[in-house]
Amino acid sequence: MALVVWWLFTPVQDTTDYDRVAKGRLLDISFSGVRVNQESLVNVLVKYEGIKKEFEHLERGFELNFKPGDYVIVRYLAEDKLKSKVDVAESKKIRARSIDPDVLVKEIYGTEKSD
Predict the structure, then answer these.
(1) What pTM was estimated for this model as a whole?
(2) CATH number of 64's domain
């Protein structure tokens, strides 16, 4: 029983080694219907590298920092662009510092990508 409780409340760690970074445009934000610690998680629709993808179950508070039309940082695998995630921490840096996401992607990651 203790193992089941531990499994239910242990966050899933993303161990994928994403090797590409791009900026993505946030198209939509919606509540996922999933709650953690009595707080709703959010789903976001993002367009990056010519792909529209819904990222599910992002942390609560994401919708307080972002709105449709904002840019976010997306990490993905070169061989499969659909294997990706929104880098919430880096995306928050863009918002907090009011910098151009192209500049951040180019300076930090040595590449220039756009939506």
Answers:
(1) 0.74
(2) 2.40.50
What are 6-56's pLDDT values in tens digits? 445 555 445 568 889 999 999 999 988 887 888 888 999 999 999 999 999
Question: In which domain, by residue range, is 24 found?
Answer: 17-109
- Establish if 69 belongs to a structural domain: yes
Report yes or no on 50 lying in a domain. Answer: yes
Bigger pLDDT: 89 vs 54 = 54
Is residue 45 included in any domain, yes or no? yes
The tokens describing 32, both together, are: 């996922």
Q: What are the DSSP calls for the chain, one per residue?
A: -HHHHHHHHSPPP------EEEEEEEEEEEEEEEEETTEEEEEEEEEETTEEEEEEEEPTTHHHH--TT-EEEEEEETTEEEEEEEEHHHHHHHHHHT--HHHHHHHHHS-----
28 assigned to some structural domain:
yes
- Tell me what percent of the residues of the chain surpass a pLDDT of 90: 42
Domain count, the chain: 1
Tokens of 99: 């910098």
